[in-house]
Amino acid sequence: MQMFLDFLVPPRINGYYSYLTKPDGSHADPSASPSASSTALSILSDSPFPSTSISPSSSFASRTSLAMPAPVPSIPARVALVTGAAQGIGEAIALRLAADGLDVALNDVPCKTEQLKDLVERIKALGARAVAIPGDVTSEADVALMVKTAVEVLGGLDVMVANAGIVAMKPLLDTSAEEYDRIMAVNARGVMLCFKAAAAQMIKQGRGGRIVGACSGSGKKGISNMAAYSMSKFAVRGLTQACAAEWIRHGITVNSYAPGCILTPMLMHPDDAKNGGPASTAKLATGMPLDIPDAEPSVVAGLVSYIARPEAHFITGQTINIDGGLHFD
Ligand SMILES: NC(=O)c1ccc[n+]([C@@H]2O[C@H](COP(=O)([O-])OP(=O)(O)OC[C@H]3O[C@@H](n4cnc5c(N)ncnc54)[C@H](O)[C@@H]3O)[C@@H](O)[C@H]2O)c1
């Protein structure tokens, strides 16, 4: 596997996440922590002067100096690994997690290495560290190396987003066994390998974690002309539930997102202009009305941002619809 180890910015104070993360990955109660803000508030409330009044200068000086935030220890940022990150939903998730304060390892197939390297630069511009790790999620050795590299370069693994996926829109009668095998290999086996490698590392670290998989609305309800794809996404939903049950005692949550129509390269087609706009060819091919809602990848990234947070510790085993109301569970 070709690798690009590119991590630059110095260690940061990452107060938000380190502050909220307990060793078991659960949510620390900020009110129980001697945080800067609670210290400042208690000092102000002890003051003999109402906070709105003008106090003598000596008291004011002492109040303001005492109210300064206490130094926050420099704790390394949490680390995420996102597969299929070169474009579309994976790219949006990687950027969002970096903006949230995580360092991010980026995977996609080796032919998209230049896109990954570009994304590394954009993430560095956000103040996070990033590393590009090209490889194929269907290969157990590649997935093991992705996790190993993320740990060695970025310092651990706290969030796995098994996002990589492929689609074929054709009737089952026209789908070869080889096409079926390839879709299952990327969408089901690939997600399973990522879940397994991530959980092994997270259990070894002993600080919990967040595992997230890419499902689809077609993992909730079979869609015509997407039989193999629907099968692979139903598999992700089963995997999500089983792994959530297995790893809950380790403080690891396992969830998946089930998007409807998200405007990414996966759904774009050269005939879209003549068929009615972006993703129209895909909608027609799968029997969807052209006016079903669609959204930008950042919508899914926002959901993953929340699931990945320490305070989301009470959500596990879920495959969450994010489709503008197309389906209700
Ligand atoms: N776009 C949608 O409307 C939609 C809807 C439901 C579910 N999804 C799912 O969300 C995920 C992301 O979809 P997207 O729309 O961003 O697709 P996309 O095609 O734009 O991006 C998917 C990325 O995965 C990468 N990839 C494919 N095979 C890989 C492999 N073997 N190893 C590593 N990387 C590989 C591709 O190179 C690509 O960069 C997929 O799992 C997809 O099935 C998408």
Automatic annotation (TrEMBL):
GO terms for molecular function: oxidoreductase activity, acting on the CH-OH group of donors, NAD or NADP as acceptor; quinone binding. It holds the Pfam family adh_short. Signal peptide: none annotated. One of its GO terms (biological process) is fatty acid biosynthetic process. InterPro entries: NAD(P)-bd_dom_sf, SDR_fam. Belongs to the short-chain dehydrogenases/reductases (SDR) family. This is NAD(P)-binding protein. It comes from Ceriporiopsis subvermispora (strain B).
